[in-house]
Amino acid sequence: MSKTPSDALSATLHNHLQQIIRENQQLAEKLDFDQVAAILPLLQQAKRVFVVGAGRTGLALKAAAMRLMHLGLTVFVVGETTTPAIGSGDVLLAGSGSGTTSSIVKAAEKAAAAGAQVVAISTTTSSPLAALATHVAVLPAAQKQDHGGEISAQYAGSLFEQSVLLLLDAIFQTLWGLDGTPAEELWKRHANLE
Amino acid sequence: MSKTPSDALSATLHNHLQQIIRENQQLAEKLDFDQVAAILPLLQQAKRVFVVGAGRTGLALKAAAMRLMHLGLTVFVVGETTTPAIGSGDVLLAGSGSGTTSSIVKAAEKAAAAGAQVVAISTTTSSPLAALATHVAVLPAAQKQDHGGEISAQYAGSLFEQSVLLLLDAIFQTLWGLDGTPAEELWKRHANLE
Amino acid sequence: MSKTPSDALSATLHNHLQQIIRENQQLAEKLDFDQVAAILPLLQQAKRVFVVGAGRTGLALKAAAMRLMHLGLTVFVVGETTTPAIGSGDVLLAGSGSGTTSSIVKAAEKAAAAGAQVVAISTTTSSPLAALATHVAVLPAAQKQDHGGEISAQYAGSLFEQSVLLLLDAIFQTLWGLDGTPAEELWKRHANLE
Amino acid sequence: MSKTPSDALSATLHNHLQQIIRENQQLAEKLDFDQVAAILPLLQQAKRVFVVGAGRTGLALKAAAMRLMHLGLTVFVVGETTTPAIGSGDVLLAGSGSGTTSSIVKAAEKAAAAGAQVVAISTTTSSPLAALATHVAVLPAAQKQDHGGEISAQYAGSLFEQSVLLLLDAIFQTLWGLDGTPAEELWKRHANLE
Predict the structure, then answer these.
(1) N or C, which terminus of chain B has less Cβ within 10 Å?
(2) Which ipTM value was assigned to this complex?
(3) Contact (CB<8Å) D75/C66
């Protein structure tokens, strides 16, 4: 019996999800985990952590910001209402695939000028953002305008954005393991007014 | 010489702005300042201040949250990324014209249950929000669906929303006067990464 | 009988609110309403309206964006999740007291390059923002770092931010009057999922 | 030669990232793709798509909202400034692991009452949210308070939140494939003022 259009749709969707997970798996195999792990003590020792990113990368950083707050760190998202001035002893965690997004580079410049450390998550160490960073963690994913599909079959920066979320969640899990606080204690820190 | 349509437009705009300011002036004359001033020690003594409001009222509360942060208070906006759990010793500053907005009433319930004090800014002391509040400051403006225009010729809750901003800015000015910190010191607390 | 500290607090708060309203009244007297009214046809004829502002000025513009949406215009806030690309036929309504805020000037540059018109609300016509604007409406309020208090006794840009809200609400009332749609019809356009 | 603490940290981080990807892979194997694929025609035929979710689930839905906007759909995020009223012909895409998050259930109730269709993404078909939904896509991940770790070793709802992002990106890739618009055309729709 021939497949219906609906069967074909399910199969295509299945294939796309498999491919997305496979791309993230392949990217993980290319990571320099020593380089990435160097972020952890910077976060642990930071007086306060500020996160910044544009578009979907910014959303991945916000997701990480929530988890770091649950872990007990003092965390702010650049651009939100009561985010204070950054200063010495603070860390700016900045995500940008290309490392050239103007608002992110500008924030990194200002953070560095204010005496904060800049930690970049990017696809490259050769960028204006990387030049300003104390430390760069490289996720060798496609950049937003690599429409050729050599590294990823996905649209624009999707692989980078997904991998930022997954990597930051792995960083959270690792920090949590070092910290040892029971899940129930973290749970009490979740926003309780929504 | 007869007026052009453009002259008429300028005159109408002028009249509307005059009327908006006059409505705010008339509302100020009706305020019970002893009742409103009772908010100040609650904010000063709060461990942390959380603000919540829907729509344009929420925007007025965010504007106030920024100023209170500049003054040195620890302030969070409900619903933003790293806003933590509210608890004992904290104050929830909740604005709602009607005092019935479901998400605001729900937040007030949860805040009270968590041991925080609820300070309401509303047009009435007879509402679910007011019933949950430790203290209510009444701004006798029209409510959102008073389309009759008895109190205000403006659309919906505009007068209430404007007066929330102006009153909270007056509260800020008063707290600042008590505090005495120079403007230059407050300025250093402004967000510096945007 | 001597006043209690609480009486004094009420009186101080009362004075501050009076002063805030008086400053807005005095500012309104200095406005060139022909210049401001020229914004109205630009908004009416715009394919889509985009608003942008930093900090409290941005909050005032968001409040205006809501009302313009209620009136039936297609309105987007720069930086929100599904705000599309601006282009020819669109208007960017940009607020900045100094006209120098880097993110706002950058947005105005990009908007102009994309073929959109830039309408600025500012304290001055001599600024990078004004240079990019098709039209500037001047609110002669103090700028953020005028700590001297010649124009306003309020902190930083508070008077400018308040006056942006009040003026844009006057613009809304004027556009609404021209439009003639009943309040009940506007009400149906309010967000109904919060 | 013994490993340094830094080597151990890298290895732990590596293991956590592998585990996160493996959990997402295992979850994908359990999906009913016919059930999930049924979302696609609902999105394609929607007059407008509204998305809603709390916390990190909400961030995953915002990331999807951006991509759907790039694809040419009319998409709004519940709670953002100019999001209009939902109505007949519209779809509310609501994400909640438990299907009990009160603000999400409330939004679904209101959407259904306004004549919109509710599409839920959840871990279960037995919930107040599922009861209101036209269609439920089940991601059999752990719920937020399953601290036991049977399904996922990750904290709280992390696996659910990650899988919402990856699945919605797979849905986007599938819709994009059906649509056939070149990447360069989608790129022109990206926000251009940030």
Answers:
(1) N
(2) 0.96
(3) no
